[in-house]
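User: We ran a pulldown and think these components assemble together. Before we commit to crystallization trials, I'd like a predicted model of the whole complex to look at. Sequences follow.
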Amino acid sequence: MIELLALSKTDGWAIIRSERGLQLLRPPYTETQCPMIQDVDAARLLAEPGFNALTEKIVKPDLGGIIAHIKETTAKTVGPEQVAQVREAARQLLIDAPPDRIRHSLRRVRTEFLPQCQFDPALRVLSILAGSKAAMADPQLQTEILKLLEESVSLQQQNKSEKRKTDRANFFKKISRLAGFFEAGTSRIFQPG
Amino acid sequence: MPTSVSHASPPPLLDLFALAKDNDNNVERQFLEASAGTSLQAEALSTMSQQILYSGKVTKNMHLGVLGDLLVNGKLENVHAWARNKAGSGNPLDWLKEKIGWAYSWHERRMLFEGYFVNGQEFLYGALNIGSLGATHYGNVSIVIDDVFLQNSPVTYLEGDSLELFLDSNDQLILPTLKKSISSQTQRHHLMAFKHRFRLDGTPQEDWPKMVCSKNEFVEVIFLQPLERSHITRVLIDAEFYNRLQDQLEAINFQLQEEVPPELATYVQVIEVLKKYNIRLETLS
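Assistant: Here's a predicted model for the assembly, 478 residues in total across the polymer chains.
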């Protein structure tokens, strides 16, 4: 059993007690982010603003349960204004990104998003990248972005029309199956005795 | 039958900052003696003291939430000020006990140390640093405190962790040791260099920053609260941590994150305030 002893809601730092002893738990909650600490370290951490010992007892059978509890508790602290601020910062990050970072994003679009037909995020990122400072300063990079943007739009349309075809085919298949069932049923009902 | 009770008055509080100034001559003399001559050790000692004098900074490790709090509210106060504000006319100790929970008895040792000094409950702690990330257990960001603020404020440099070095197992202050192991702002470079005099020879110069300031090894710095946002000249951030946050932020554009983790929200808030107040963010490995 693992007990959650303390939590800092603004950044997800936590202190737990397990069979191994006292541990500090930090996002992204991997093995390297869970060092063993002493009580005296805990006292120092808890003297900092926002890091508080818990007044209720939270015990979970494993670390996964503790992490899920931390994530659930801390997620509530992020309000809509903060979410909007993060989204804007994320957009700005792409606007200010250096050329190598932009090429990295282009590669992700090409190799991850388009093959998985995730067109909306791909198009959004490409539209931001097209207006980025690096693209404005480098016509070759801008051409690369616009080409991929065009390719994405065309793939999206192609995907839509294929989806429409498949949907239509599925619809007729369903109808004909229903018609067959109906025909068989009615013939049974009206079968002369 | 009533017993007679002796009302011995408590010992007068000590002025830590005055004690530090009183020891400055001693720190300088020790250093000059050790660095006299032409041995490699003497040469290294001089090099280190120059490095501390010209690039040494006082830093304070904290986790992102604390930095966010400091930047947004404009000042950092210690836990005693927090408890006093919370308690109003009540007992601040009740608030401290609830905040620190099971670890309160460990915090009491800190309070005992502070209780020996004038303004002890106003103490803030940092470390003297020549370019490392410091004690990352206490936080993977570190603020660099303005030299001008430190030159104009009471400040004391202590050879190491005050609780380990200057409180005995009965929680009594080891005053003779304390008096010999501290300095003011003017002798900080000699205090730190002298402390490491036997390790300089065998350690390459590029490893000195981590040698003198890490979780287990530091020159502690005590100054008085509040620490204000305007006293921060730079913020150091662990490069790996920074890259992870930047990747998370970029992923928001791709909508891979459905929710915004609080750490990322705090990070963005921190970045915005740093930009607004023109405070530089530097990555360190």
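The mean pLDDT of chain A is 89. That may be worth checking against your pulldown data before setting up trials.

User: Thanks, that helps.
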